[in-house]
Specification:
Length: about 575
């Protein structure tokens, strides 16, 4: 589920003063600096002006470092970096990037502190990571009004890099932090990631699996595969993997994993190997098999592999190799093949459409989408945007005497949360409450949304389609955002029919490991809801209110008969 940050914050700059210690003391290190060209591949999302990024090598190490200040400046256009100020205290061994912000509860001091003595990064408020621009060409918030966020148990986040064998250095006004760590903490969570192919730095929306084959071919070169790996790189990658899994794997608590270190010991020998094939198999066995989590997978193998293996389509096929499927993937694949065959004549090409019979309409949604500005101006906007699809489908059934509307999410594997929130607005006039448990900050956030269904810019009018009886058709392939829809719709009083939904309560987090391997996994954003006044985390799926055998999923006459008295 490619979930964007829904909660937005208005930031107000209060002070432009730069405080520098007059008695700064440099670390006793030597470093060499390499200026690499920076290429932003996400121009349709973020307008970024930087054309270079400096990479540093400390002493004789092969580990890549970046200067925290230069790094955030390079990301201007993704982050609102012009708002950031910094202060340096050599006496306290800290490098501080901060802003004064209007968080909705008044002006607050929000900071990120790098301590080069303790080797820690401390963020006093997770809202630091929301000081970003909204993607420019995608209409995530169009027709959607966001209320005030209610946050409970919010606390500072401390990343202890020393625990994972990483250092922070300070010299000549530069705060040097491992590139892999900065990429994870400050880019991945915002769906933007950086790749170093050995010649240039590339910035991608989401990750490299999101670019075209043509673009990938232009990025890939034989530089890294010919160069080969070093023992230091493999150790850095292993330690970075430990850091990522212990801090960012959102199902860690729910799988009752206290510490990933003991688990990773089983894969350590192959991950540390200089043989990329052993690395690849270790990654696959960990992410696609052991964790048995559909949100967790390899997005692309590292640039140290040949192009045929590094290309994202290879990883996508590898994940669904019938001979290596984990239990959850096996069940998901078997059932989606069954349903696809059962519906191939009803829903050709798996495109969103609608059907009617007697008093029942079935609206088939293959995924939750938000269109671009240009797509939503087109005559067939309903093909690209779920809000536009709902308007189109409901317009077409309005004179057919329909009483019941079934949203068919039986083959819907997820999509964009903003889209599902808008679709919920068609179902009920009640406020839509979106709830997230942040496993990293150990805090909960709830936000109420309203949807402008008739696009008149009035969010207070009651314009939902409450003249219909609403149902959701779900099964094991109703996953991720679609599973979230089932849970949230139950809170609004909508009944589900079919079988138990597939689960998937966390958004997907794309992370780039130190060796450029792309990992996509269940993130720290875990969704929950209330059903019958009981808190329910969504990972386990939801039982149907009306059970329906899979062979009856597309029998509209039968569905009509069980819904009509």
């Amino acid at each position: 589920m490619r979930i964007k940050k829904i909660i937005t914050t208005c930031f107000l700059l209060i002070s432009s003063t730069l405080f520098l210690s007059s008695c700064a003391k440099d670390d006793k290190i030597a470093y060499k600096e390499e200026k690499l060209e920076f290429v932003n591949l996400a121009n349709s999302y973020y307008d970024m002006k930087a054309n270079s990024l400096n990479i540093y090598y400390v002493d004789n190490s092969d580990i890549q470092y970046v200067d925290a200040g230069n790094f955030m400046k390079t990301l201007d256009g993704f982050y609102q970096s012009s708002l950031f100020k910094k202060s340096i205290s050599s006496f306290r061994n800290i490098y501080n990037i901060y802003v004064y912000a209007n968080t909705g509860n008044g002006i607050e001091y929000i900071s990120c502190v790098f301590d080069w003595n303790k080797n820690t990064i401390t963020v006093n408020n997770p809202l630091f990571f929301n000081i970003k621009y909204n993607p420019s060409s995608v209409e995530f918030m169009t027709h959607l009004e966001e209320g005030k966020a209610e946050i409970e148990n919010q606390k500072e986040i401390v990343f202890d890099l020393a625990k994972y064998g990483f250092d922070i250095y300070y010299k000549n006004g530069k705060c040097l932090v491992p590139f892999s760590i900065m990429n994870t903490i400050f880019c991945s969570d915002g769906y933007y990631n950086l790749y170093n192919n050995g010649e240039k730095i590339y910035g991608t929306y989401y990750d490299i699996s999101n670019v075209s084959d043509e673009t990938f071919n232009s990025i890939y070169n034989d530089n890294l595969s010919n160069k080969g790996q070093t023992n230091e790189l493999r150790l850095e990658t292993y330690n970075h993997l430990r850091f990522v899994m212990n801090n960012y794997y959102g199902l860690k608590k729910f799988k009752e994993i206290d510490d990933f270190d003991s688990i990773l010991e089983n894969y350590k020998e192959d991950i540390l190997s200089l043989d990329v094939e052993k690395n690849r198999k270790a990654y696959y066995n960990l992410f696609s098999t052991y964790l048995n989590d559909l949100h967790t997978r390899i997005g692309a193998y590292s640039f140290y592999n040949t192009k045929e293996i590094a290309i994202p389509t290879y990883a996508a096929k590898d994940m669904w190799d019938s001979n290596k499927l984990s239990e959850n993937r096996r069940i998901y694949k078997e059932k989606i093949q069954y349903l696809s065959n059962l519906s191939k004549d009803i829903y050709p090409n798996n495109e969103s459409t609608y059907r009617t019979y007697d008093k029942t309409a079935i609206l088939y949604m293959s995924e939750f989408n938000v269109g671009t500005t240009e797509q939503n101006k087109s005559l067939d906007a309903y093909k690209y945007d779920s809000y536009e699809y709902m308007k189109w489908a409901l317009k077409n059934i309005e004179d057919k005497g329909i009483k019941n509307v079934v949203l068919d999410l039986s083959q819907n594997g997820g999509g964009v949360v903003a889209a599902l929130l808008k679709v919920l607005g068609f179902v009920s006039n009640d406020d839509i409450t979106y709830r997230i448990y942040d496993t990293l900050a150990d805090s909960t956030t709830s936000v109420k949304f309203r949807v402008d269904i008739n696009a008149d810019d009035d969010y207070s009018d009651l314009d939902a389609y409450t003249n219909y009886n609403w149902y959701v058709l779900a099964g094991v392939n109703t996953y991720s955002a679609a599973n979230t829809f089932v849970g949230m719709s139950k809170e609004l009083g909508v009944k589900s029919i079919g079988q138990k939904s597939g689960g998937g309560m966390c958004s997907v987090l794309p992370v780039i490991l130190a060796d450029t391997t792309t990992v996509e996994m269940s993130s720290t954003n875990a969704m929950y809801t209330y059903v019958n006044n009981k808190l329910v985390f969504m990972e386990g799926g939801f039982e149907p209110d009306i059970e329906l055998d899979y062979d009856k999923f597309y029998d509209i006459e039968y569905i009509n008969s069980i819904l009509i008295d």
